[in-house]
Amino acid sequence: MTIKRYPPDQQGSSYFGRGEITELRAISFPGEKGAVTRVGPLFYWAWAYSNETYQIPEHPHKGFEIVTYVLVGEVEHGDSLAHHQNLSAGSLQIIQAGSGVKHTEKLKKDTELLQIWFEPDLRQSFKQVPTYSYLTQQQVMVTEEQIGVRVKHLIGSPAPIELQTKAIMMDVEIAPNQRYIYQIPADTTLAFYVTHGQGNLDDVANDVHEQLKCKDFVVVEEDASRNLLFQANNDGLRIVVVGVPNQVPYSLYHKE
């Protein structure tokens, strides 16, 4: 398999307001610097932090499936579909923008989140009614996969939410000095973000090793070898993982 790690200095960066919210963009918008252009139907991926409370002004979206996952803090959501929702740490929201929706988000001070855009078949999604859904931390399915490993299933089976875009999304917490063996599903590319701690990632079959540090973005393309070994150091390791198909049966938006 191929493992590519992109530390923060290789990711794009941006901000809102006068810097109240700062971002690292592992996958940026067209025309912007980013670690990678896209990962299959993964169109955009950003880590954001608010050093002060700040409200992002109302703005429109169309077509894409936009996932916001709150790591720390609180977000107040409002949209043109008349939804108003407070999201605390561990909450997940999904905007399926369809034919068009406007929304605004207020990030409270010291909030940290990931926003990830998935690209369905836009020719179809542009015609569909926009929807909004969310999961609270209490509604997220949690399993103990191995000793010292806690997995929150966010999107895709066995999670209660499915996207139009074929995808899985998990939040994996590995206790200090523990390890986690994960088998990549067939015909799947993984992308993940290190949100806490440090450790190592090994493709044992091919003798490939990568050190992992906080805010690294990593892309793993599977082949005949599909077993990954994650090893946490003394601080533990937390990663948010997304899996998408190597290929999709529709044309993807051309990014330059």
UniProtKB/TrEMBL annotation:
SUPFAM superfamilies: RmlC-like cupins. Pfam families: Pirin. InterPro entries: Pirin (IPR012093), Pirin_N_dom (IPR003829), RmlC-like_jellyroll (IPR014710), RmlC_Cupin_sf (IPR011051). Gene3D superfamilies: Jelly Rolls (2.60.120.10). Belongs to the pirin family. This is Pirin family protein.
